[in-house]
């Protein structure tokens, strides 16, 4: 019952926010036709080419070092050939929500960058862990991490002073932040992100995983639409927490590994290796954000 209450409050709040963009027509049509993985590349390109800005952004995202392509792509046709429809569709969704985390107010640029770096970390961590464990995802693993902080970005856009004060009061402690969000708004940033993505008709597997990223009692990973994808994001979130708070939540992490792959041996080694390889994302002084927009 609690999750319904939280989501209802989040959905009501989303309706009150006037600054949130609606999904562009071209993007909406592109997402509709790519829901059929047998759609022809020519048809996809014909739709996307109607919006030069979207076309350019898609190529920039595809070539982003955080996305992990080994070869640079210079045309939409080549991007589709290399990535495939499913992964290209994930980039389309990622492109859509990037509009929500632009720096609307330079006064809060540091917080925007914090959320962006955290999202990149979780996206990259989730993808590398997924590849290490040979899970059958084609972009969804990266995308859930990229969208994990979308609720925070929306709150900072729409309620900058109030939300920045809340973040500062939490002192970089995730549990304290969740408690303050529930106390102040009646929902968490995950609930708000879930409500927004549902409103945009984003695939349920994605917003459901984002809803479960903290593993709260009212949104258990075990009951997720795709428990393995939810567990991936949960692990990425806790990897971030471990770095930021210098804490190791062994029981929580071990349970998520078990959901992904039962009886996985040496999970600690895998965990530590990926954390070490991804820490540089959080340590960067310059965030490659404007180049993607």
Name given to the CATH homologous superfamily: Hypothetical protein af1432
Tell me roughly what share of residues is in helical segments: 55-70%
Tell me the distance between the termini.
Answer: 39 Å
CATH topology: Hypothetical protein af1432
What is the CATH architecture assignment? Orthogonal Bundle
- Give me the number of helical elements: 15
Instruction: State which percent range the strand residues make up.
Output: under 5%
**Shape from CA axes?**
globular
Poorly predicted regions = 289-293
- Overall strand count: 0
Rounded mean pLDDT score: 84
* Rg value: 18 Å
Largest sheet: none
Description:
The protein is an all-alpha fold. It has a single domain (2-22, 102-292), classed as Hypothetical protein af1432. It has helices at residues 2-16, 25-34, 41-48, 52-62, 76-98, 109-132, 140-146, 150-158, 160-170, 174-185, 189-199, 204-211, 227-245, 250-260, 267-283. The longest helix is centred in the middle third of the chain and has 24 residues, at 109-132. It is globular and about 50 Å long.
Question: Features of this protein?
Answer:
293 residues; Hypothetical protein af1432; disordered C terminus; mainly alpha; single chain
Short description:
This protein is mainly alpha-helical and 293 residues long. 67% of the residues lie in helices and 0% in strands.
Topology:
Blueprint: H1 2-16, H2 25-34, H3 41-48, H4 52-62, H5 76-98, H6 109-132, H7 140-146, H8 150-158, H9 160-170, H10 174-185, H11 189-199, H12 204-211, H13 227-245, H14 250-260, H15 267-283
